[in-house]
């Protein structure tokens, strides 16, 4: 079992909300050393940072997605979540959750989960 | 946004030979005030998530073999594998974290010749 693991539906209908959860099992999500991030990779395209959250709830989003993204944290469950509203085919991708050393690089990644957007 | 452009897109190298992957940023990703270069390199093998290899452009992550090295500053960075092993077949990505909006290169696919 990886220290971070994504879960959620692999199929989302257009215009609906894509929702994923990342469970952190390799330590406390409440560490002051890390952000917790969502990154995606559409087929054949480069990796794209979606956003990050600190255990306190402070969030940082990619401006290109900010209007549709909500990242939240549940420290009691050692989980953080992604919601991306008004999904379109362009949102189809492998979605990764990752641990991010405060504001810098990503040192731990989940296995990734493929999300398809289709009716 | 800072654009990261890798070259080449794909590379075939013989076992035991040197592999070199380049990454160019659209603006400097180095701070002179702290002498740090805000670049990381990742390795992604088929069916696996990316794995951090190098950060601060030249610092190897714990457990990464010393045949992997990173260099560069300003806008030009390089990942070098000194003696290619079969297990190094993967796609390699650079990433800048100079800006809050961290961005990745398009990836370089490394194969055995």
Describe the structure.
The complex is a heterodimer of chains A (119) and B (113). Chain A is an all-beta fold and 119 residues long. Chain A has strands spanning 4-7, 11-12, 18-24, 34-41, 48-53, 59-61, 69-74, 79-84, 93-101, 106-109, 113-117. In chain A, the strands form two sheets. In chain A, strands 2, 4, 5, 6, 9, 10 and 11 form a seven-stranded mixed β-sheet that branches. In chain A, strands 1-3-8-7 form a four-stranded antiparallel β-sheet, with no helix packed on it. The radius of gyration of chain A is 13 Å and the shape is globular. The model of chain A has no long low-confidence stretch (mean pLDDT 95). In chain B, strands 2, 6, 7, 8, 11, 12 and 13 form a seven-stranded mixed β-sheet that branches. At the A-B interface, β10 of A face β7 and β12 of B.
> In percent, how much strand structure appears in the residues of chain A?
over 45%
Give the overall shape of chain A, derived from the CA principal axes.
globular
Radius of gyration of chain B, whole Å: 13 Å
Give the beta-strand count of chain A. Answer: 11
Q: Roughly what fraction of the amino acids of chain B lie in strands? A: over 45%
SS-based structural class of chain A? mainly beta
Characterize the biggest β-sheet of chain A: 7 strands, mixed
Arithmetic mean of pLDDT of chain B: 97
Q: Radius of gyration of chain A over alpha carbons?
A: 13 Å
Number of helices of chain A: 0
Percent helix of chain B: under 10%
Oligomer: heterodimer
The secondary-structure class of chain B comes to: mainly beta
Q: What is the N-to-C succession of helices and strands of chain A? A: EEEEEEEEEEE
Give the low-pLDDT segments of chain B.
none
């Amino acid at each position: 079992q990886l220290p971070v693991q994504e879960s959620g539906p692999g199929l989302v209908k257009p215009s609906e909300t894509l929702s994923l959860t990342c469970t952190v099992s390799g330590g406390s999500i409440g560490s002051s050393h890390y952000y917790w991030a969502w990154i995606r990779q559409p087929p054949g395209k480069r990796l794209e940072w979606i956003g990050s959250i600190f255990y306190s709830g402070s969030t940082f989003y990619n401006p290109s997605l900010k209007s549709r993204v909500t990242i939240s944290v549940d420290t009691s469950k050692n989980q953080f979540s992604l919601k991306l509203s008004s999904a379109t085919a362009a949102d189809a991708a492998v979605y990764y959750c990752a641990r991010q050393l405060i504001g810098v690089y990503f040192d731990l990644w989940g296995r990734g989960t493929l999300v398809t957007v289709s009716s | 946004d800072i654009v990261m452009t890798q070259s080449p897109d794909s590379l075939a190298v013989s076992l035991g030979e040197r592999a070199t992957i380049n990454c160019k940023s659209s603006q400097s990703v180095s701070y002179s005030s702290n002498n740090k270069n805000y670049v990381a390199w990742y390795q992604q093998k088929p069916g696996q998530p990316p794995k951090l290899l190098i950060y601060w452009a030249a610092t190897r992550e714990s457990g990464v073999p010393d045949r992997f090295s990173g260099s560069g500053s300003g806008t030009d960075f390089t990942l070098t594998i000194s003696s290619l092993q079969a297990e190094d077949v993967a796609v390699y990505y650079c990433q800048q974290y100079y800006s809050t909006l961290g961005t990745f290169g398009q990836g370089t696919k490394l194969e055995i010749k």
